[in-house]
Amino acid sequence: MTIVRNKDLTAWNTFGLKVSCACFVEYGSVAELEELWKRNRDGLGLPETGGAGDGTAFPSPILHIGRGSNLLFTKDFPGTVFHSDIKFIEAGGESCGITAGETAGDRRTDVEVGAGVLWDDFCRWSAEQGLWGPENLSGIPGETGAAAVQNIGAYGVEAKDFIRMVKCFDYITGKVVAFRPSECRYGYRESMFKTSAKGRYVVTSVCFSLSSGPNPKLEYGNVRAAVDKALEDTGKSLTPALVRDVILSVRNSKLPDPAVIGSAGSFFKNPVVPRSDYERVASIARIGHSDDCQVPHFDTGSGFIKIPAAWLIEQCGLKGYRDGNAAVYERQPLVIVNLTGEASPEEILAVEKKVSDSVYSKFGIRLQPEVEHI
Question: Is position 5 annotated as part of the catalytic site?
Answer without folding.
Answer: no
